[in-house]
Amino acid sequence: MRQTQAKRIVLGLTGGIAAYKAAELARLLLKQGVEVQVAMTEAACHFITPATMQALTGRPVLVNQWDAITNGMAHIDTSRAADAIVVAPATADFISKLAHGLADDLLSTLCLARVCPLLVAPAMNKQMWAHAATQRNVVQLERDGVTILGPCSGVQACGEEGMGRMLEAEELALDIVAFLQGSKSLNGGSPTLTLPQGERGSIHKMDGVRILITAGPTYEAIDAVRGITNRSSGKMGYAVARAALELGAQVTLVSGPTALPKPQGAQVVDVTSAAEMFEAVKQHVAGAGIFIGVAAVADYRIAQPSTQKIKKSADKLTLELLPNPDILAYVANLPKPPFCVGFAAESENLHGHAKTKRKAKNIPLLVANLAQQAIGSDENELILFDDTGEHVLPRADKLTLARQLMQHIVMLRTNIKT
Questions:
Q1: For this structure, is 158 an active site residue?
Q2: How far apart are CA 17 and CA 77, in angstroms?
Q3: Annotated catalytic residue: which of 111, 116, 152, 158?
Q4: Element (H or E) spanning 133, and its range?
Q5: All domains of the chain, ordered by start, with CATH?
Q6: Which end of the chain is more exposed for a tag (fewer CB within 10 A), N or C?
Q7: Residues 357-409: pLDDT tens digits?
Q8: Is the pTM above the cut of 0.70?
Q9: Bond into 151 cis (ω within 30)
Q10: What CA–CA distances, in Å, run from 12 to 17, 37, 128, 300?
Q11: Maximum alpha-carbon separation in the chain
């Protein structure tokens, strides 16, 4: 598979205590395949050292524009090589500089001389954030086309609590990567994702499309404290929800029990059992253009669960199991069904079982993987089965695979409509 050119960002650090989060942010971006060049103000160096950021990124950190570039034009050369500049943290002082076009150090000069998008993650005391001057400056930046990431409300370094806290590194990394996936490239063309052979192309938008997704395991009670469940972490379903949100879709996520943070922007419906998931799907499927059944739904439930804990004894315990509703089959057989995507986790004979399941469910797309290679892992390998055959998505992190899957779904829906 041909690999697409890596995205490059300049990560700018200014003088705030939240600069410590930049180390984790850089690590997460690098993990996503983003090249990171760090530029720091002198004030930022009092909170985190350039040596730390250089060790993480493998690149010399820019602080003084006269030191790093032989021709003395770091503010020009560095911005020309970047797909975006991200300032995180961005102090009230630095936001003021950006709003008024000031350029008295390397980072502010680099931002003023850029030809790429600018993203800013504010970080400051709640009074500073609420101050009329700061709010005017933020409005001006938005009018100038700058993307503002956050802030959020929380406990601050001063001991107070309120709005102004910088977003956490994990959330910022997701937002930045999503922006890079959807932003224009430097030469004016559209960015590309790594897709199966013959399906590569520009990013497709799904603005306004309603997508219903199920994710995670279900839990079927045996008694008051015990139950039947599986080892699904929900990571794949949550990644699919994130990828759909990135394309502008309206996402409803019906989630079994997981320990994952809720995808920002999605309507999340928490359920426990397969019956509860089925009811939630029936309530939300109307108007959905796409249904993606990622959840590892229990095939069986206990016929008569006990309301009290069953006490251990020397006797055998026999449990009667009843089949649970087939959620995917229900949706696929609606009078006017949405575009249905099913998932199949198999332990053997992956191709045979997947083809049989797709035919039995009568759905346009089935996504299959080996359970032992995927459950609980941050990575996976998928095979997509549709009317044209099989499409392998090689092993990668689940968010990357989810983005590739969403592109394939868009392509299939477009072909069906035309």
A1: yes
A2: 29
A3: 158
A4: helix 132-143
A5: 8-182 (3.40.50.1950), 210-303+318-417 (3.40.50.10300)
A6: C
A7: 999 999 999 999 887 776 767 788 999 999 999 999 988 888 888 988 998 99
A8: no
A9: yes
A10: 14, 8, 20, 53
A11: 84
